[in-house]
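Tip: read the tokens left to right.
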């Protein structure tokens, strides 16, 4: 699920050929692309499934630069050189992975408390989940400074492009910007809230100042860009903000702010979906979850409170209550992949989903028919694609989401099929996937009605809308996303 790293076979992207030939690329992210584990059988290495890292891995393999990330594995430092670096991929070393040592105390303040209990809920406008503590913010700052110091050391005084990823590293750019020979770009993968929400955060000014260390700052949508520029205006009276040019000038520094909607390797999903094994597995799944035939609904999410799973369950239950004729003829398969289990809100949330599903099934199950199947584990990409093929309707109903790549993956997997995508208006993907059935995830009655509509839409109409969606997803892929970003880097770099 999520971003998949099937770019390995892609020809060298033109921007990569041009940029990497001139300057080294230094990627900075919290997660690392390869993790070494100590086990009873010795040292084992794994590549975390899905996620950002697997999508960026092939880019680094092609550019031969350096990747700076937290060394999270128990055996990570058994294989590193005296400067905490190791060449990867392990079976075909192409680039350097520089691992950062973080203590349990660092992780608590930086990752658990500030990134995931303060910045994450804030940016997803979930203020009842927002937790702030000044001591943890201090740790976040210190750890960000260490990420930046590692990247600077890796640049070794040469001109370099540093590509910083996401909300865990908001302050890294301000430290990097002190080094004149480094061009700093950051991509912010999650939403940016309105200034009225942002002002709840006591460190809002410092957060924004950190991001203004970037020469180029990328967001998922135009709306995020507008919110960010409005935040700068609100927090820095002396800033010059030019929305038409996507430009901020503050204290002699320029930051270009742009929207770069992220995407997927659409062709890889199409090919996986067309594989005979996928078709066979999809048939097995349908037979298992819908023994009497009917409509299979699907949800695939990290178990995260922003994904809207409880309200989705309420909508599904409403549908069952209002339309008893659907009993035994519609099943929801909900995949909820455990995530961030060290964060208290996530532990409670996982338990809440399990309880809600159990209660719903107790109220409505009849004979062999179980209304909701809950899968609480991470699935391989092949298995997720089989689920996409098996499902008649995919429910992607987050309360707020930067993009949501499940929506795009479902569409790319629908070649020759006429599935329906029910999509939250508050997912970044809704700005592109206009032919989806768009819903407000807070309105459970309207969501139930949208599911019913999806069930009853004639095949011809479903096929027409899905074909339009597929064209959109194939027109703008993960390769295009990276090309757009690095063409902009090349355009801006000479002036930086
Ligand atoms: O959506 C933001 C993100 O950080 C992704 O990049 C990542 O795949 C996912 O959340 C999981 O997050 P974590 O690194 O906290 O497990």
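Filled-in amino acids:
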């Amino acid at each position: 699920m999520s971003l998949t790293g099937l770019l390995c076979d892609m020809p060298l992207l033109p921007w990569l050929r041009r940029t990497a030939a001139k300057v080294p690329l230094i990627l900075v992210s919290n997660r690392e692309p390869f993790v070494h584990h100590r086990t009873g059988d010795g040292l084992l290495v794994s590549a975390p499934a899905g996620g950002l890292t697997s999508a960026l891995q092939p880019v680094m393999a092609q550019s031969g630069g350096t990747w700076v990330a937290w060394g999270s594995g128990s055996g990570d430092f058994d294989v590193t050189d005296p400067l905490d670096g190791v060449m990867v991929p392990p079976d075909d070393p192409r680039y350097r992975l520089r691992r950062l040592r973080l203590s349990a105390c660092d992780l608590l303040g930086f990752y658990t408390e500030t990134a995931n209990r303060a910045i994450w809920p804030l940016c997803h406008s979930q203020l009842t989940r927002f937790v702030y503590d000044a001591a943890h913010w201090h740790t976040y700052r210190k750890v960000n400074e260490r990420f930046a110091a590692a990247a600077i050391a890796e640049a070794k005084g040469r001109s370099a492009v540093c590509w910083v990823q996401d909300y865990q590293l908001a302050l890294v750019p301000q430290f990097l910007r002190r080094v004149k020979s480094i061009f700093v770009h950051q991509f912010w993968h999650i939403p940016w809230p309105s200034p009225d929400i942002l002002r709840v955060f006591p460190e809002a000014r410092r957060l924004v100042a950190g991001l203004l260390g970037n020469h180029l700052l990328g967001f998922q949508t135009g709306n995020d860009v507008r919110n960010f520029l409005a935040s700068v205006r609100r927090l820095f009276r002396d800033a010059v903000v030019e929305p038409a040019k996507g430009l901020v000038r503050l204290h002699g520094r320029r930051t270009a702010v742009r929207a770069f909607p992220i995407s997927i390797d659409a062709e890889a999903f199409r090919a996986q979906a067309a594989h005979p094994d996928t078709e066979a597995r999809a048939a097995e799944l349908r037979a298992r979850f819908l023994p009497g035939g009917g409509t299979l609904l699907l949800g695939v999410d990290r178990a995260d409170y922003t994904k809207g799973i409880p309200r989705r369950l309420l909508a599904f239950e409403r549908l069952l209550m209002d339309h008893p004729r659907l009993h035994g003829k519609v099943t929801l398969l909900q995949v909820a992949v455990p995530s961030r289990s060290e964060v208290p809100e996530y532990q409670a949330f996982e338990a809440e989903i399990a309880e809600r599903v159990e209660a719903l099934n107790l109220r409505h199950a009849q004979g062999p028919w179980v209304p909701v199947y809950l899968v609480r584990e991470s699935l391989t990409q092949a298995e997720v694609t089989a689920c996409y093929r098996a499902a008649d309707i995919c429910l992607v109903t987050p309360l707020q989401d930067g993009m949501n790549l499940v929506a795009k993956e479902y569409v790319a997997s629908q070649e020759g099929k006429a599935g329906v995508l029910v999509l939250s208006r508050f997912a970044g993907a809704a700005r592109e996937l206009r032919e989806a059935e768009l819903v407000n995830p807070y309105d459970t009655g309207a969501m139930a009605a949208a599911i019913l509509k999806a069930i009853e839409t004639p095949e011809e109409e479903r096929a027409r809308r899905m074909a339009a969606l597929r064209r959109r997803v194939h027109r703008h892929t993960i390769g295009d996303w990276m090309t757009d970003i690095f063409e902009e880097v090349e355009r801006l770099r000479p002036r930086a």
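The chain has two domains: 3-263+479-495, 266-475. Residues 2, 31, 51-52, 166, 189-190, 339-340 surround 6-O-phosphono-beta-D-fructofuranose (CB under 6 Å).
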